[in-house]
Amino acid sequence: MNSISLYVERNSFVHDIDPITKLIYIVFAILIPIILPSFTISFICVGISLVLLAFAKVLRKTVPVFSFVFLILITVIIIQGLFKPENETILFQIGPITMYQEGLLFALTITLRVINIVSAFMILVLTTKPSELVESLVRKGLSPRIGYMIVSVFQIIPEMMAAVSTITDAQRARGMETEGNFFVRVKAFLPLIGPVVLGSLINTKERAMALEVRGFNSRVPKTYLYEEKTYAHSKLIQSLLLLGIAGAIVWRIVS
Amino acid sequence: MINVKNLSFSYKKTEGARVLSDIHLEFDQRSTAIIGQNGAGKTTFVKLLKGLLKPDIGQITIKGQDIKGKTAAELARTIGLIFQNPNDQIFKRTVLDEVMFGPLNIQMEKSAAKEKAIEALKMAGLDHHLDTNPHDLSLSEKKLLCMASVMAMETDIIIFDEPTIAQDNQGKEKIKQIIQTLKDKGKLVMTIIHDMDFVAENFERTIVFNEGKVLADGPTREVFSQKQALLQANVEAPYITQLADKLGFAGTVLSIGEFIDKVDANK
Description:
heterodimer; A: mainly alpha; 9 helices; 2 strands; 70% helix; 4% strand; B: Rossmann fold; six-stranded mixed beta sheet; four-stranded antiparallel beta sheet; 11 helices; 10 strands
């Protein structure tokens, strides 16, 4: 069954770092360029994330994500460069199209922030198993019910995709065409969606009962299945990141 | 009726081992069971026969016609496949409508579809449930309903995927009768199954799949006498066959009747 998780199994120190430290890094990478709004700071943050992704040996896996993000950012650059209300200084002209400096600088700021946020999240997503992340959050006080909901999404969606494939086969086996023009597909919709929805409802009921009989709602403290993931320098890294955020706030207030 | 030549298939086209490799088989009208452990390639094989998957290499001909290029829906007039889990197909509000869905898909007249549906439901012992919501039936009845919904299409070939799962003794007896009726009508009945006792009692020919290849093929009695092949395929012979073997009875016993005859002969 295909997984919807983007986690990539690699042997690297980035993979060894615990999920909470990575979450704090995301907060750091988002806040610093906002508190200290300069291109240099933004470039440094993006650079750090890219270096970490390279060390984690997952840089190639970011290409599809960045490609999608760039597609959206290009529209931002064009719209801001052409139509931002504050546009005054003409940067260049191509025929009737005029690009303005103010709009382009604003678009560059947005672009850098988005790339920065995406890069930081990619570190977490590509190097952390969803179950490890959720278990770490539960250890820090997240409700186990919400934790289960998050993890179950990663299980249920591939299960549903597999169910849709089997149901499609079962109906095709009874002579139903599923490929063709719009009307053929519309006609195929009910025979496919009916068993998917009913199957999901049945599965949800059975899943809930299976959880209940195994003490999911027990109020006693639970034992964790896995050892807590720890990294030798977690505390040091977390402290440095939090100090960095505090330092940036102080710098901003003072200067 | 079916001719399979040099058939190979893999799900990942760029990497990985083949799920099926170099299969050569011919199917006549003998009822046939395909056995083997999970992952042996049984389900993939029947999906290829049904046109739900397309072979990487090789050719499948059904009644002399190459099925390459034909969709599963087009093949539905010739070959029926009954899926293991009834909840994967049921969506109509009444049992009768559910069974009529297949015949109507293959352009059968509405009156003929109704007639065939009722006939099939009679065979399945569900003709008193015509207006019942299929979801109100038991799992065993739902499985029989799915059988009826394919039988109503009057295909020459019918494949059952694990027919005995979720069936009590009464349900198994009903399926036994259905298979016999279909055989009497001259249809090719095939199954993929793990219930070896059911195979021994109901199927004339048995094919053992192992790691995507045919390991043994022949009359059921002959196949269940090949201990080495069964061991290699991780398949157990029927319990009655094993018991007779442990007691040192000569030959391969396939049913309780045969076992009693052997006991009487040894008195």
